[in-house]
Design goal:
The protein has nine helices and 21 strands. By secondary structure, the protein is of the alpha+beta class. It folds into two domains: 76 residues, Immunoglobulin-like, CATH 2.60.40; 262 residues, 4-Layer Sandwich (Purple Acid Phosphatase, chain A, domain 2), CATH 3.60.21.10.
Length: 482
């Protein structure tokens, strides 16, 4: 039985096609209205602002990868082999100041310019700008990760287009610009399928154009999807392997390669995964492209081979949440205390879940654009995960984003974490709404948060899927988790 009574049953392919055409027309109308979208600013390679591969010195970038507490890499691609200048300075200097900032100049022997910044201060915002062919771009900013403590990062994915019906201009730009407007985001994790064909330069033109504001101001960490096709161009662009780790303060994120061309190497990846997750870090997350759990019509249950190979390691290593893509929607599942989030609403053609859901299923949002924001707070025993939907054509840019679900994650080694894993603030209805009046009464009384270290905003509308009076004591028998 579906959890959303507002969703019609028996959806057909023709219904989805008509729905996507209607929404796409709405997006086109919204984009044509100057009041409905923010201006792109001075971003090289943002072809909507007049730059094209023919009239801008910079084709792709700037974009940021490989950030640590003391280092980062800023990338710029040019059409011609020309020198590029990067200026940067710490935030405390109030931005780029002529004569004070540090300058780096790349040689003119390549079209891919990589500025490897080293000896940076941890947990610090830096400003930077780019000069190429006499034209200056910026100011932009990035943050080095703190050596300990919380950070905020975004997860989204599946931004590929399907021309001529669906374009990155009409969908991905809306999501990327909304992410760019999020304050304090240091990192963006993409769950894969960035483009339709990873070996096609034109596809990457559209990706970098529509994501320009976002990519210039936060570190970008991609997961390789099947549409990247294991292409050489993908590896040239990001200069990172298909599986790697990110250590950002108290957060440890492991990126896995789940594509079928890597299945022969799953055992060796598992050895590496176990060793990586042995790190003594409070919060452990995993990101991969293909879902371990899913109610997708085509892959009902998820990819069983990946689940058998990696889920035992997730459990033993204390992984809190796993982010996945491939199925173009939002779905939340829980299994053995781990939250599985399918976040693939970056703009690719919409998919549908099956009418019958898997036992681990909890919530979903279909036919929407959006992303998830993970927020760590100093001194807090929890991490908040806000699931956001981007609505095309809804007023000004800062008015078109809505939180549809907020999840409170607990460390794996706490009693509340083992019992609840998440107390939910959600506009999505519960899976089993057997006592709606009782549930509503708890929401109105604002008693949904039962962890002593969690403070609820007085204006919160909380639906407690674990009723406070019925929460079992530690070491009791398992119960239905949110």
């Amino acid at each position: 039985m579906r959890s959303e009574p507002w969703r019609a049953s028996g959806k057909s392919a023709s219904f989805f096609l008509i729905l996507e055409v209607i929404v796409t027309l709405g997006i086109l109308l919204a984009i044509s209205c100057p009041c409905a979208s923010a201006g792109p600013g001075n971003f090289p390679g943002d072809f909507s602002s007049g730059d094209t591969p023919g009239n801008s010195a910079i084709r792709w970038g700037p974009y940021i990868t490989g950030t640590t507490s003391h280092a980062t890499s800023i990338h710029v691609w040019t059409d011609d082999q020309i020198p590029v200048i990067l200026e940067y300075s710490p935030e405390e200097d109030g931005g780029i100041i002529d004569g004070i900032s540090l300058n780096l100049t790349s040689g003119g022997e390549d079209v891919h310019h990589i500025f490897a910044l080293r000896n940076l201060d941890p947990g610090t915002w830096y400003y930077y700008r780019i000069t190429a062919d006499g034209r200056r771009y910026g100011d932009y900013r990035f943050m080095t990760y703190p050596q300990s403590g919380p950070v905020s990062y975004v997860v989204y994915g599946d931004t590929r287009d399907e021309l001529p019906r669906i374009s990155q201009e009409n969908r991905h730009r809306l999501v990327a610009d909304a992410i760019a407007d999020e304050p304090g985001v240091a990192l963006i994790v993409h769950t894969g399928d960035l483009v339709h064909d990873g070996g096609n330069i034109s596809d990457w033109d559209r990706f970098f154009s529509t994501g320009a504001r976002m990519l210039a101001n936060a570190t970008f960490a991609p997961v390789m999807g099947n549409h990247e096709r294991n292409s050489t161009l993908y590896f040239k662009i990001f200069r990172s392997p298909a599986n790697y780790t990110i250590e950002a303060g108290d957060f440890f994120i492991t990126i896995l390669d789940s594509n079928d061309w890597s299945w022969d190497t799953l055992p060796s990846q598992s050895v590496w995964l176990s060793e990586s997750l042995a790190e003594d870090i409070p919060w452990k997350f995993v990101a991969l492209h293909h879902p371990v759990y899913s109610s997708d019509e085509k892959h009902w249950g998820g990819f069983e081979n990946l689940r058998k190979e990696w889920e035992p390691i997730f459990r033993e290593s204390g992984v809190v949440a796993v982010f996945q893509g491939h199925v173009h929607l939002y779905e939340r599942d829980t299994a053995d205390g781990i939250t599985y989030i399918t976040e693939a609403r970056g703009g690719a053609p919409w998919y549908a879940l099956a009418e019958e859901k898997i036992p681990e299923y909890r919530k979903s949002s279909e036919n929407t654009l959006g992303y998830s924001l993970i927020i760590g707070e100093s001194g807090s025993p929890v991490v908040r995960l806000k699931v956001k939907t981007v609505y095309p054509g809804r007023g000004m840019p800062n008015e078109n984003v809505e939180v549809i679900e907020e999840i409170i994650l607990y460390p794996h080694d706490t009693a509340s974490g083992s019992i609840h894993q998440g107390i939910i603030k959600s506009s999505l209805l519960p899976l089993h709404l057997s006592a709606p009046l009782r549930c509503l009464s708890y929401a109105l009384r604002d008693t949904g948060c039962v962890h002593p270290g969690v403070r609820c905003h007085p204006d919160s509308q909380i639906i407690p899927f674990v009723f406070p009076g019925e929460a079992p004591q530690p070491n009791s028998s398992p119960m239905e988790r949110a």
